[in-house]
Design a protein that fits this description.
Helices cover 65% and strands 10% of the residues. The chain has 376 residues and is of the alpha+beta class. It has a 5-stranded mixed sheet. The radius of gyration is 43 Å and the shape is rod-shaped.
């Protein structure tokens, strides 16, 4: 800001030098000094008025046009005033100021005419110069507006890019939280089941205690491995296989998931009425696996020791329907839950183009039902 003001003051000083040069040139060419005091006064006043030009450009330019009518010393400052208004104001305002400057110089030419220049040529030059000032100022203004527009678009594009990056990061974190819940909640609920058996059945045989401890140890290792795999796979949403060659769960892994729950002590009645499961899209199969996994995990947490009825049916063109029913909660959950598992599962199913319903079953208990698209 201080640098711009200093540069402007230097420009005012240069205009003052031009005014002094015009006075000297007029006196040197005509030898007439009778108007010298007026010229000096007009030169000083018009140059001083330029200091007001940045704050009041229109009124200052009109005042400079009046001073230009009195003396050629006012011509350089008046020219600067006309150009400044043309650069900063609309065409109509700029044209009126340019017309005032033209009129002021026409009056000057009437009573302070040049000996070697006819008044007609003076009028032509006067109109040509002010038309050029008007055109130059309007072109500069349009160019500056274009640059400002391009700069604004660049800043807006940069801000939009920043917003998209922030949204992508938020989405990635949400996806990571959902994946970690789906994978680890199931594994940890199994560990809690075996740990509960060790706590409430300390009189079991050493073989059974050793087997339960071995399952817990193996489950902890698997949970840690799956945690690392989830974090790694979420770095690339297009990865089909996790590091180490272990694929993501598919629809074909449902029997193993059910068997794992049965080994943990949950009685699962599994009815599979799926036709031609090999044509099921992989993404739909993974979503179906997560639905069943979440249902079995919630059943172990809230209705431990009670049977679970699982039905999976559908075919190409008919869609895939999953229904899981378990009795009502029997008290304090085996492991605490945040209540966000079904929220994330609902979002996952919706992203897959399906629907998810959960609530009380008609005969009592809890029902989880999902419908997923299966193209023909």
């Amino acid at each position: 800001m201080r640098r711009n003001r200093r540069a402007y003051l230097v420009g005012v000083a240069l205009v003052g030098v031009l005014s002094a040069a015009s006075i000297y040139g007029r006196v040197a060419s005509t030898g007439d000094t009778q108007w010298l005091p007026l010229d000096i006064i007009v030169g000083i006043v018009s140059t001083g008025l330029l200091l007001l030009l940045p704050r009041r450009p229109v009124s200052t330019a009109l005042g400079l046009a009046v001073l230009a009518a009195l003396s050629p010393a006012g011509t350089p400052p008046s020219t600067v005033g006309t150009l400044t208004v043309a650069q900063r104001f609309p065409l109509r305002t700029a044209a009126l100021v340019a017309l005032a400057g033209t009129a002021g110089h026409l009056v000057q030419g009437l009573w302070r005419s040049f000996d070697n220049l006819s008044y007609l040529w003076f009028v032509i030059l006067d109109f040509a110069v002010h038309a050029a000032l008007l055109g130059w100022g309007q072109w500069t203004q349009a160019r500056q507006q274009l640059l400002d527009s391009l700069r604004e678009r660049a800043e807006r594009a940069e801000a939009e890019q920043g917003r998209r990056v922030a949204e992508a990061r938020t989405l990635e974190r949400t996806q990571m939280a959902r994946e970690m819940h789906d994978v680890l909640a199931h594994r940890l609920s199994l560990l809690a089941t075996y740990a509960g058996a060790l706590e409430y059945r300390p009189d079991s045989s050493p073989d059974k205690l050793a087997k339960a401890a071995g399952v817990i140890r193996s489950g902890v290792h698997q949970a840690l491995d799956e945690l690392r795999e989830v974090i790694s796979v979420l770095r690339d949403t297009e990865i089909d296989e996790m590091p180490g060659g272990r694929p993501q769960p598919t629809f074909g892994d449902l029997p193993a998931l059910v068997a794992e729950s049965r080994e943990a002590g949950t009685t699962v009645s599994y009815d599979d009425h799926v036709a031609d499961a090999t044509t099921l899209p992989p993404a739909t199969g993974r979503t179906a696996y997560r639905v069943v996994q979440e249902g079995l995990t919630n059943a172990r947490k809230h209705a431990a020791g009670h049977p679970v009825w699982l039905t999976v049916a559908g075919g190409p063109g008919d869609g895939l329907r999953i229904e899981l029913i378990n009795p009502a909660s029997n008290g304090t959950p085996l492991t605490p839950g945040s209540g966000t598992g079904l929220v994330g599962l609902t979002e996952r199913v919706h992203l897959a183009g399906g629907t998810l319903d959960h609530g009380k079953a008609p005969g009592g208990g809890f029902r989880l039902e999902a419908s997923l698209p299966w193209p023909a």
